[in-house]
Queue: 2 jobs
Job 1
Amino acid sequence: MASRPGHAGRINEDFVGATTGLAVLLDGAGIPNTEAICVHGVAWYASTLGSTMLSCWARREAVDLRAVLARAIEEVAGRHRNTCDIADPSSPQATVAMVAVQDQTLHYLALADAFVVLGTRSTDPVVVTDGREVQVRRESLAPLNGLTTGTPEYRRMRAIVIEELRGRRNQASGYWIAKDDPAAAAEAVTGTVPLDEVDSFALLSDGASRVVDPYGLLDWRAFMQVLHSTGPRALLRRLRQYEVGRTDGPPLDDASVTFAEFRRPPRGGPAVPRQPAERTCAASSRRRDAGAVLALRGASGLPAPLCWSAPIAAVTP
Ligand SMILES: [Mn+2]
Ligand SMILES: [Zn+2]
């Protein structure tokens, strides 16, 4: 795993972590000048929520990913409810990606614009994200299109649309993100894949997924190949090399990648040809615009013995 701040000397508000069987990645939403709302700040929120998720899992207080997230949101809310205005729409919040491995099954969760990418044995990678945050943001900010930045009209309209966006946060008509309300966990995109159909997985913050979209430096298959051959730190270095000095893209963002490969012990006897995995799109009818909700259902057969091997490199400060 690797993580880099968007700007040297500024605190990294992403968090990556793992314990036996669970990897988590969080991207703290950087709403500036909110010290009056929360004395702790965004980096504290993302790292405390992430480490509480790992702790809940390790203590086996919850085994389902949504339950782990809900319990951790509740626990962290309790830690600053008395000192901070946690119900304010701009109190610290975070996008979340999780992968757990249990009983020969890989479980994944994505909330807001964090990514889970599953490297499969025979098809293109399966990319899971929750598209609602991006869509609601685009809709809410649309009135700014065509206005000149810095003009009084721009500032007036910006105040209006920001208020609109705040009002759609953690609401049925908007998008969901980890904040003070454990109900957000029930809104996350989740799914399972038989472990023997997955080679590897990656968790990404939106600062890292830019390599594919919008920059188009790699497609998802090449992205996973680069992680396989050179690892997360080299990938983030390449991202920054591309971004430095550019003026036409979005502002630099914290960028984080966790990558794990499943190493299977060699089996005796000749290799058995495998049926290709069948990909099914299992979009929930309950949730509108829930982004990509993909699940793999695939070739039957006995799962191979597996060890979950997450090559953990030092986190780059
Ligand atoms: Mn980000
Ligand atoms: Zn606080």
Note: The chain has two domains: 2-131+175-267+275-309, 132-174.
Job 2
Amino acid sequence: MSRKRSESLSPQKVWHTHSPEETEAVGAQLAEQLQPDTLILISGALGAGKTTLIRGLCRALGITEPIRSPTFTLVNEYTIRRPPALVGLPLFHLDLYRIETPEQLRTLGLDELLERGGITVIEWGEALPALGFDYMPRHLWRITIQLYPPDERREIELSGCTS
Ligand SMILES: Nc1ncnc2c1ncn2[C@@H]1O[C@H](COP(=O)(O)OP(=O)(O)OP(=O)(O)O)[C@@H](O)[C@H]1O
Ligand SMILES: [Mg+2]
């Protein structure tokens, strides 16, 4: 996915975590930087910790519902309860693992979700360009999680964060 508008690019950031709790804490830290109309694409192998990171982010936004991979439901919607700048906005959590064609992607109505100006977080989000998707929200974050089996160690990298 390429951005046509000229945007300022924040410095790349890397975290190393050693437990799910530490990965949730990174998610919570990321939540502090969020602005309305942000799309977050998360890539990482099966079990890397994508949902765990999103759980931490959601908790920091006051979302108390259980956070699970929306592998079968495809889209989960929550309402953000804090901070004041985001309160009331929707947070959509998607998982593209089973989406293989542009037609399947269209059934998710991603354009309409993004037009609501909230936060959209997509697991396996790196697949979007190959699925022909080119809608651009105001802010785009890319996060990559690397795992080091059999350890609990993870490397979380935030790159391409535009604002
Ligand atoms: N440092 C860590 N960070 C995140 N998860 C960890 C860590 N160490 C161990 N884990 C475990 O790894 C698993 C990560 O699962 P999670 O569902 O978050 O991954 P995922 O990337 O969303 O997987 P999937 O591709 O299946 O959706 C959990 O069981 C979690 O407890
Ligand atoms: Mg997941």
Note: The beta strands are 13-17, 38-43, 75-79, 90-95, 119-123, 139-147, 154-162.
